Amino acid sequence: MLMISNIRYQRFVQSPVRLLIIRNWHKKRVQVAWKKPEMGWTKLNFDGSCKETGQGSIGGVLRNHNAEFLFGYAESIGKTTSNIAELAALRRGIELVLENGWNDVWLEGDSKALVEIIAQRRLVKCAVAQGHISHINLMIPELNNCIVTHIYREGNRAADKFAQMGHKLKKPQIWRGNPPLEVLSIMHEDAEGKVFLRRRKA
After folding, report:
1. Where is the RNase H type-1 domain (predicted)?
2. Which among 126, 120, 156 is positioned nearest to 48, based on CA atoms?
């Protein structure tokens, strides 16, 4: 088997297209799944969306330790950038968390750079972005306990769906108790622990 594998490799490298296939063989597959928070904790998944036109929207969803829907939110925020949209989504989510009295909160988004900025309390050059960051940093200490983590996009689908819905809204909207039909299937899959395989470089 090893000899056959070596022969095939030698043949493949003659073609740049096939060489790309070989490189894919050496990529690791990462298992991605939405995780429930611990009992007594509330989990906020948030996301921002920005179209090619520059129009942005935000969305997010809160669930408890049983993966039960608590509330979701979505809003169109006008002209912006994807980074600002991500920050605005997190900021709005924390505001709603505090308004509803949740104290032990897990914050999770699919922008790794944003999560690192918040977790490390870093400064950024963009004044608009720093305004959101400063506000977020003021709100987080109001929580008893707070975790901030990054999740790949496959594990953040519910928040992404809310953010996409935000593009179609004329005014901010909040759902309480029952999620909109558009996210029901995603919510069920998350609750069941559906796993997605994501490729990444070794």
Report:
1. 38-168
2. 156
